[in-house]
Give the backbone structure.
Amino acid sequence: MKLSKKFAVGLAATALVGSLGISAASAATIVAGGATFPLNLMESCRASFAGDSTANSAGHKVDYTGVGSGTGRSNFFKGDYKFAMSDSLYKTSDTSYRTSFVFMPLIAGAINVAYRLDGVKPAGTVLQMSSATVAKIFAGQIKTWNDASIKADNPVAAQPKLLGLNGQTKFTLKKASATKATLAATLTSKAVTSKSKNLIITSSVDGGKTVKKIYNKKPKAGTISLTVPYAKGTVYSITLDKALIGSVSVDATSVVLPDTPITVYKRKDTSGTTNNFANYLNKAEPTIWTKATNDAFDSAFPGTVPTDGSFVAAQGNDGVSNGVMSKDGGIGYAEVSFVNERQTAGKPIVSAKIKNGAGEFLAGSSAGAALAVGAAAIDSTTGIVTFKYDNTVAGAYPITAVSYGMANTAAYGTSADNAIAKSYVNYVLDTCAPEVAEIKGYSALPASLVTISKAIAAKIGA
């Protein structure tokens, strides 16, 4: 099942208009593809680009297919794609490698460690993981969910704060009296839509065995303060429409983990998401994840990938996310938007909170990715971003990636195709990413990096 919404919007025009100086009747489509990491953003941008009479008066279209970064680069170098996206850097070993092309950053985003685990208590608990625990899980060294390393990352503690849905919801809990507590709920306009039906809060004093519904109303954007019944040990779980956001508690609560076997979902295609994820594991925990990064998970894996069914290959960010949500005990890595859209649809998938260099446990978000990009080293000429996984910036999410666009210079492709690719790249940088990146679960590039990208984009078709 694929939950990403695909849109096709066309514009019929009749006059000689547009910055390219061509007739609307000559509207064309360029074939593009590559990384699945930015797929949800590309689907939105290419749809709005086709219908934007200012940026694209001729109604040109970009037909983007998510096939993975490796295949995307290969198809681009062979000339099959006139525009491509890759989350990993090109290599001289890429098929039909050539030097005459344009490569620039277009969008950033968090790679979430997504999991499904039934039977965690208290219900709604979002698990925390250190980099060592993540590395051991994906190296096949941790095989069950009640492993001592996971337990150590989730000690007995109060949990008075909760963020969810890419930072669009926030809940804080305070004890008000012996029998009352105050729960403040902040929902942004991006979290609450015209289709939103209910904000549900339940309480339990016995770890989820007995659950009582204490609030159920239509949500509104903004902050509301609720007085809720309290008894020592109460855990409150919050659901927005179909999405289980998580739980909060005033008192210290013990996390109980089932002994469910872990099933790791990995990419079967050559993937920039894999490359960035494996690079994080290698740089953060080199004694556990001993191999350098690679687009192919099996090549980056420190040893031989188990063949006992504990590791399952899946196609694209969609395939990994679908596998995780369908398997109790499943875990995988995917761009935050793919996890969020399934949570919003009520699917049983959660983003683990990963420990960053500042000692915070955070789920991936647009804001966290933006802070990670801000802490990274950026080549002012090429725009290439090198992440510092041990940065101590508060709020920075440690597993972040940048997706790069690829287009032709005048030496390759037709001038008409190159002109469409150039218009589309500038549209993403100037209009689409700033407007919809956060809504879609991505992070638009900072202004300084956009300036670098636009300077590089000026070379498309030149």
